[in-house]
Amino acid sequence: MNTLEMLDETKTQYGLATDGELARLVGCSTAQISQYRTKKRTMDDYTAARVAELLGINEMIVIAQANAEREKDDSKRAFWMQKAADFARKSTASMWRARDDSNVRPLPSEGSTLSS
């Protein structure tokens, strides 16, 4: 997902109708949002981290994606794209990791037959 799609997702999740509302929520100017949309400017790290916070995702995903979009050198752009993908994969993997309940004893109110 590119940074413009992330901005659109933020608008959707928060039920925002305008880029002005989005700008107020993110903490930047409407002109900045407009410049992001016309690709005259790329998100700075603060804005990227703020968007990630609002979306509930690892801020490094958005920061790395913004760096990839900003980068002019192909090899450096590829580096940042890989970092964004790696952070996204790690975030998804940790989200689905099974919880280890092997050291948790049920409460007496849960019908435990174990004695103390």
Can you offer a commentary on this structure?
- By secondary structure, the protein is mainly α.
- The protein has one domain (3-92): 434 Repressor (Amino-terminal Domain) (Orthogonal Bundle), CATH 1.10.260.
- The protein has six helices and no strands.
- Helix 5 (59-70) runs antiparallel to helix 6 (74-95).
- The longest helix is centred in the last third of the chain and has 22 residues, at 74-95.
- The radius of gyration is 20 Å and the shape is flat.
- The relative contact order is 0.11.
Percent in helix: 55-70%
Mean pLDDT: 87
Q: What's the number of extended β-strand segments?
A: 0
What is the beta-strand fraction? under 5%
CATH class: Mainly Alpha
**Tally of alpha and pi helices:** 6
How many angstroms does the end-to-end distance come to?
Answer: 52 Å
In N-to-C order, the SSE pattern is HHHHHH
Overall body shape: flat
Low-pLDDT stretches are none
Radius of gyration (CA) equals 20 Å
Q: Using the coordinates shown, work out and report the CATH topology.
A: 434 Repressor (Amino-terminal Domain)
What composes the largest sheet? none
> How many discrete structural domains?
1
CATH architecture: Orthogonal Bundle
- Judged by helices, strands and strand pairing, the structural class is mainly alpha
